[in-house]
Amino acid sequence: MDVGSGLGRVVLHAARRPYRQIVGVEISPALVEVAKDNRAAYRGELACRDIRLVRADAAGFTFPRGDLVVYLYNPFGAQVLAPMLERLCADRRRDVALVYHTPVERATIDAHPAFELIADLGIGLIYVSHKELHGARRILGRA
After folding, report:
1. The three-state (H, E, C) secondary structure of 22-72, written as one string
2. DSSP label at residue 141
3. Given 10, 28, 34, 76, which is the most exposed site by the fewest CB atoms within 10 A?
């Protein structure tokens, strides 16, 4: 999942990997339309064919069931990030890996009890749901 997916570049990049489904969530109707055009024009190889581009507010978005890898390229402030994290953690049966590029609102995630920082890449951070550390590493391919 790419939350704050903008033009859909990360969605298309992720679709080159064999994920079951890729979802891009974007609040801007104009950016969702550009992302859909980019998807239609894309001629590269795709390992994932189930690509969804959704217009939604991240603070109120209902995440799909199952294990998730969620990517954020610093798309919004703490006022949206905090409720999004709560919704993301609502289903405690799943494993979540959260990849946060340019982590301006890092303190919001650091303060959340459900997430544990497992990697600082300099330009980004990787968190996992605290309850299922091993499973989140598995879905990232780092077993």
Report:
1. EEEEECCHHHHHHHHHHHHHCCCCCCCCCEEEEECCHHHCCCCCCCEEEEE
2. T
3. 28
Contact 51, 18 (CB under 8 A): no
Q: Give the domains, in start order, of the chain with CATH numbers.
A: 1-51 (no CATH), 57-143 (3.30.1370)
The amino acid present at 7, given as its one-letter code, is L
Q: Which residue reads 């939604």 in tokens?
A: 56
Give percent of the chain with pLDDT exceeding 90.
81
Amino acid symbol at 11: V
Structural contact between residues 18 and 49, judged by C-beta atoms closer than 8 angstroms: no
The torsion angles phi and psi of 133, rounded to 5 degrees, stand at: -55, -50
For the segment 60-77, what is each residue's pLDDT rounded down to a tens digit?
999 998 889 999 999 999
